[in-house]
Amino acid sequence: MIDFNDRPASETADTAGTMAARALAYAEAGIPVFPCNPLDKRPLLPAGPGGTGGFHLATTNPLQIKAWWAKWPNAMIGAPTGKASGLVALDVDQSPERGKYGIETLHAIGHPLEELFDHPHTQTAGGGYHVFFAYEEERPIRNTAGAVGRFLDTRGEGGYVILAGSRTADGRAYTALADLSETPLTPAPEWLHEALSAGAGGSNTSSLDFNTAGKLGEPFGPNAAKRAGEIPPGQWHEKTRDLVARMVREGSSDETILALAPRFTEAGYTDEQTIRDFAAHIRTARAKWGYVATAPVTQPAEHPGIQPTAFAWQDPATIPPREWLYARHYIRKFCSGTIAPGGTGKSSLVQVEALSMATGLDLLNTPVLHPLRVWAWNGEDPHEEIMRRVMAACVHFGVTPEHIGDRLFLDSGRDLPIVLVGDSRDGAVIAEPMVEQLIAALTANKIDVLIIDPFVSCHRVSENDNAKIDTVVKTWNRVAERANCAIELVHHVRKAPGDVTIEDARGAAALKDGLRMSRVLNVMGEEDAARFNIGVAERRAFVRVDSGKVNLTPAGAGPLWRRLVSVSLGNATKDRPADSVGVITAWEPDALPAIPAPDVLAIQTVVSNDEWRVDIRSPNWVGRAVAEAMNLQIGQAEGKNRAKIIVKEMVARGWLKVVQKRGTRREIVTFVEVGEWVE
Q1: What are the structural domains of the chain?
Q2: Quick check: pTM over 0.85?
Q3: Under DSSP, is residue 662 helix (H, G, I), strand (E, B) or coil?
Q4: Most buried one in 211, 338, 346, 460, CB count within 10 A?
């Protein structure tokens, strides 16, 4: 028997409990599958023209399925309905808290849910049911909404369903109660065909044209009753849901929408039932799209209303100081950020910092007041790779298990997805259950610092949408405050020539605006390499850390430097060499070595014999005088940068001076002359 139900989340990637294995099990049973977004159940495969993409790409090919779930390990498992799979489904929508009563509808039409339990059926994540039947080509069942009855939909040709074993982003499961491998598929009962035939208005769409009524602040006016009569049989739920959603989007108050509800009451139902259903539609729309009513909100009698708070003098000494947890970057109850191009060692940096905080050891010339509880979450790499990096750091710094204790937590997004905000065509959607779960986990484990690397892995919104990214950042700030921890968001930059700044952070500006502290990483440039006597080929191992934004503390005196060193794990086998892993370390550059007096004098002598320009583009650039005196290869980058550094140093010490003179065409030209002669 193939077990399509859920398995413990702790199972590893090569066990039968993974989503990939479940998808493969369905394929083995002859059911084509495709990956769906756990946030909104939509296909992760892009739709193509004329129905050539999306769920139309469902397959039983194991190689393709493995490739999909390698890319989206936590994708839900979708299956097309109709001829492609041989399946059709009755979708019983049941959610009393949202005003959905599909089970009661079945009972009312004389066919209680239990009557269908001889067919394969699944309990959905929302509490409803999918009941499966065999597809009949001579009597195909279409996609309908409400054609059988309120809160009863069908999925047939051109549709798809989520299969058992899938989990939503907030952890709710689809559970097989009578699985597709043990319970034979049989055609749909006759009463279902008769109900569909009687409710022929069922449709694939939800396109009742309410837009023609104009702006819906006072929706429809005298035409409301007429519009209600235009709803085709069997589509009441879908059409009124769309109506309410449109009214919410256009700013109608709850009171206005509910006042309209009785005009849409169907025969056999009371106005109270209709108002209850409209209220559920309103809650759903406001929760999904985040729109608020434009009419004043009624406050409880005891609520004083919105009032400004008068300033009350407080002794400054009694205000608790900001709780900096590590350096002047990680701060409790706030979000900070690290922004850097790929390959600069940002992941290694935050991992070594996590190790330093968890152990209380000064690993990067940054004192730790006391050991902290740190949770490092990497959304890109498998857990095995994360362990390579952390253990390489332990090897390099001599960290032992006794140093760490129980204070370090490591997770991969491949095993434990943390996606707090999803996307919809109408705006960002906060996964509130996941937010609450995360806060609970942080609180229960007394986490002081949470590192999210990279930021892009924790949401599903467009990076360039400022409003949506603002929602993501504000959600993380809410988590930091409620969980009483510091949160570090690691982010990429867009491609930019030369050094990057915080302004080069990829996507919308709302991210950097929402961070209270941020820093930027750059590999060492050629000029700094020359200044510190580091070869051009070696400079990429050196990383400069600059403050990008400092809202809560004065700007630092200058950049910090870090160096990536290669550390062997000592895990060589007969067939494979040992892994070498880059580990970030502290590095203090030496000051420019003192220029010997004879060299200074030689440079001054060459400079005094001609007119030398500041402009590096000039044939008489002063760096050429330095190169001549010190035998530097000015045509090579290393020699050119060395000459630039020496000029800067000699000007700073007064051995050379910058002057302005009139050129041959009477223009102002900047020259370099001998300053104070060296003895």
Answers
A1: 19-198 (3.30.2250), 211-289 (no CATH), 324-586 (3.40.50.300), 597-674 (1.10.10)
A2: no
A3: strand
A4: 338
